[in-house]
């Protein structure tokens, strides 16, 4: 296996649990989980997880099977990342 390549065996169950949790969060709140300081630690953890999926996808390391599952469960998972405006400077 190439460094950085994701497996779909042992960690797939754990990955699926994260996907389900993100989908439940979106269904409940209407938004993706946040990574902001001060939010619930569980939400922040999910925010980091979805961000890691985006990053892996953007550099070609997210398995197409996982991309399809993300698209089906959380259609906004990558859209908002790609189309958000520039950050405000303070």
TrEMBL record:
InterPro entries: Helicase_assoc. This is Helicase-associated domain-containing protein. Residues 12-72 form the Helicase-associated domain. Pfam families: HA (PF03457).
